[in-house]
Amino acid sequence: MPGQATDAGKVSFCDAKEEIRAELEGLAFCDRQERPGAREQRLNIVWRNVVLMSLLHLGAVYSLVLIPKAMPLTLLWAYFCFLLTALGVTAGAHRLWSHRSYKAKLPLRIFLAAANSMAFQNDIFEWARDHRAHHKYSETDADPHNARRGFFFSHIGWLLVRKHPDVIEKGRKLDVSDLLADPVVQFQRKYYKITVVLMCFVFPTVVPWYIWGESLWNSYFLAAILRYTISLNGTWLVNSAAHMYGNRPYDKHVSPRQNPLVTLGAIGEGFHNYHHTFPFDYSASEFGLNFNPTTWFIDFMCLLGLATDRKRATKAMIEARKAKTGDGSG
């Protein structure tokens, strides 16, 4: 169960005008007016990240022009790489390493680590540590992508500024002994830069060029740049949209929501109110295989004997929680 570090009845989301003003001005946290006397803290912008993310998204927009010029196989390959990328985050860094909601044998962990490097969203250790902080200190300054600071911040802004001191301080107190003990996690962390270059950019680009004669230009922009940008935003929508838009049938006292559109973009991660209520559930949803490609993948790995010990919330547990804390919508 996720720890609630704030009382939802006492700390409300800042309104739309405050969010827009905070995002445009780049000033203090949007809850500064809710806590009189609190020290105003300016955002420490990381301009290198601002430039790189801007160039990446401009490259993705340009990539759209190349779609009609590319071979159909290249487009299919780009989509296949998107699925691999997503699984490296959803089945790997999220459900396996962050929540330990199932167990994976060595070949599967190696595959998921490689797919996670293709995702290029920080190494598994840092991703899982920050995600555990997100659950334990959700919607506080110790939450890396605190949604109370506005849509832009929780979507991409948190990557464009230095981490809040509380994120670093509280993150150091989390138990990450299991991550430190996993040789696959440590190997990926040690060689992260080279694995990212190979898996995120070189491998997706070379395959279409070498096997079916696509131009390197089209391969790079479609299978690497466009695919990477879309996968990033799919993950970020879980932090932003799924914390602001949707219903809360399991726990109306937390901000995460059920968001079907996010579920489509993040291959099963949009059942977010459920996930924050039952974070140990390997399916991250009450509905099992109901458009949850990540759950399909984990179940298939179990059939192959590569995954075991899937954890699930019982039907009785779910219904009891709905009746106690749900908003009555489901």
TrEMBL record:
Residues 76-279 form the Fatty acid desaturase domain. PROSITE patterns: FATTY_ACID_DESATUR_1 (PS00476). It is a multi-pass membrane protein. One of its GO terms (biological process) is unsaturated fatty acid biosynthetic process. The histidine box domains are involved in binding the catalytic metal ions. Belongs to the fatty acid desaturase type 1 family. This is Stearoyl-CoA desaturase 5. GO terms for molecular function: iron ion binding; stearoyl-CoA 9-desaturase activity. It comes from the Eukaryota. Its cofactor is Fe(2+). It is found in: Membrane. It holds the Pfam family FA_desaturase. The chain crosses the membrane at residues 45-65, 77-97, 191-211, 217-238. Keywords: Fatty acid biosynthesis, Fatty acid metabolism, Iron, Lipid biosynthesis, Lipid metabolism, Membrane, Metal-binding, Oxidoreductase, Transmembrane, Transmembrane helix. GO terms for cellular component: endoplasmic reticulum membrane.
